Amino acid sequence: MESTRARVPIAAPRESALSHDRPGTLQRMTAENITENIIEIRGLNSFYNSRQVIFDISFAIPKHQITVIMGVSGSGKTTVFRHLIGLKRTAAGQITVDGQDLGSFSETMLMQYRRKIGVLFQSGALFNSLSLSGNIAIPLRVHTNLAFETIRIMALMKLNLVGLAEFCDYMPSQISGGMKKRAGLARALIMDPEVLFVDEPSSGLDPITAAGLDRLILKLREVYEMTIVVVTHELESAFKIADRIVVMDNGRVMAAGRPKEILASKDPRVMQFLAREADPLKVHVDAYYDRLLGEARRSI
Amino acid sequence: MVNPVRSLGAYSLRQVISAGRLGVFFFCTIRGIIRPPGKFWPTVKQIQFIGTKSFAVIGFTAAFTGMVLALQGYHTLTRFGSEGWLGSAVGLSLIRELGPVLSALMVTGRAGSAMAAEIGIMRIEEQIDALECMAIDPYSYLITPRFIASVICLPLLTSFCDALGILGGYVIGVKLLGVNEGSFWDGLISSIDWSDLYMGLVKSVCFSLLIVWVCTYKGFYAGVDEGSFGPEQVGRATTEAVVISSIAVLIGDYVITSILL
């Protein structure tokens, strides 16, 4: 059986110049925390139309580790995710993959990069008109010349990995949300990617299914030595799986480092996020009553 | 004073961007013909959807159009004692104009709207993003088979529409209103030449391209301009797809007729 991984050239590992511990700054690595970074983000800015949503962020994603990008809704983590998987082009700043600038990739190079990555979208993004095995087989059908039966066996192996082998002939509409995510994960793994990107793996799932997905992600890191990038706002899940955590807020990196370092962070916004505290109410009581009662109140 | 000018400028800019994107979309779709993945089975599936499933609705439309044409034509022609020309009137109207236009409008309503909705849902459910992330060209995978299928199906559906319309006209004109059968068919055959059939064929091919282009484009970019992806965007994209492609068909009909006549 032809190995799909063997088809994709892997760049030689190289030392990083970025530290994870000081977001937004470039630092020489110290002896004890030298890791090879597969992806590095330097001074990234991002815009939707003319609105800036990401402000000069820098951090790195080390090889063979799980990096969790965490933050409240609207913090910009999904935008960073879309930059990392090449769905959004960098307007200012740089994302380097194995030392090469992702922003300068031609269409062909981008296609080659995407063959090296696997992506699990929040909803699973399965095709409704295809069975689970059909969905998982798509990349193999398009990118390889393997026989139909070989492709089916490989799809079944991946479905087995996520515990869905017996559902291979089911349509996406016949399975639950958690199963869709697991099937999406199987599809993301079918080409044996170097880097796996996972968007909100636990959102909308019951605790048991979410824990199952977390365990699966850990297994992928341990058994296959995969580099995994997870975007989530689930604290429990993040601290369970992460080797590195990047906390984002309002399009900026508030903290980045190992889970212990994040827990020890003195940044008030990070502390608030970790303590799950709500923002203070933004209603100004006086202004509200003024608007409600108008002149009558002022004359009292 | 500045705001209306700014709004007009922003609107113009959006239209220019949209036109450019429409051109790129067409180019990528045509380029998809020679790009992987293979198109045979997806195209067969689309032929079944666009073509086979449209037969009934086009059949009904064509038959009743032919019947109405015969009815109206008969009452007009009898005033001049020329009811023998009924076959010619029905045939020419259908083959040159009504056949291609009605088939195109029916395909727009039945298949075009479904295409826009299906691709729009794929957009909001991140399935198109997933295709890109699997290094699969979404144009080649999703749009090109629909283009090919549509170009194959619409001329055939138009021919079917013409034939059934003429048959409807024959039933009303000859069997119901008593027009001479020989003069009906003779008038029909003598007045229609290859240029009429050619015009109908050219129109149906052009309309098929217009319909798929507009409908798949609208679905493909559902919600992209707004930056929000939800059912509302799919609904809007579907409505716009049907309205714009219907108007494009009618305008295209005039343009092609004026060129070919």
What would you say this structure looks like, in words?
The complex is a heterodimer of chains A (300) and B (261). The termini of chain A are far apart. Chain A is of the alpha/beta class and 300 residues long. Mean pLDDT of chain A is 83; it is low at 1-33. Chain A is 36% helix and 22% strand. The mean pLDDT of chain B is 93. Chain B is built from nine helices and no strands. Chain B is elongated. In chain B, helix 3 (55-79) runs antiparallel to helix 4 (86-124), helix 4 packs across helix 7 and helix 4 (86-124) packs antiparallel against helix 9 (231-260). Chain B has helices at residues 2-31, 40-50, 55-79, 86-124, 127-133, 138-176, 181-191, 194-220, 231-260. The termini of chain B are far apart. Chain B is mainly alpha-helical and 261 residues long. At the A-B interface, helix 2 and helix 3 of A face helix 5 of B.
Secondary-structure-based class of chain B equals mainly alpha
Q: Tell me the strand percentage band of chain B.
A: under 5%
Going by helix content, strand content and strand pairing, the class of chain A is alpha/beta
| Number of helical regions of chain B | 9
Largest sheet data of chain A? 6 strands, mixed
Number of strands of chain B: 0
Please state the overall shape of chain B, judged from the principal axes of the Cα atoms: elongated
What are the secondary-structure elements of chain B, in order, as H or E? HHHHHHHHH
Q: Which consecutive residue ranges of chain A, at least 5 long each, have pLDDT under 50?
A: 1-33
* Overall residue-averaged pLDDT value of chain A: 83
Work out the radius of gyration of chain B.
Answer: 22 Å
Could you tell me how far the N terminus lies from the C terminus of chain A, measured between alpha carbons in angstroms?
A: 86 Å
Largest interchain contact = A-B, 26 and 16 residues
| Largest β sheet strand count, sense and barrel closure of chain B | none
Extract low-pLDDT stretches of chain B. none
Number of strands of chain A: 10
Kindly estimate the percentage of residues of chain A that lie in beta strands according to DSSP. 15-25%
Distance between the termini of chain B: 48 Å
Write out the strand line-up for the largest beta sheet of chain A, numbering strands in chain order: 6-7-8-3-9-10
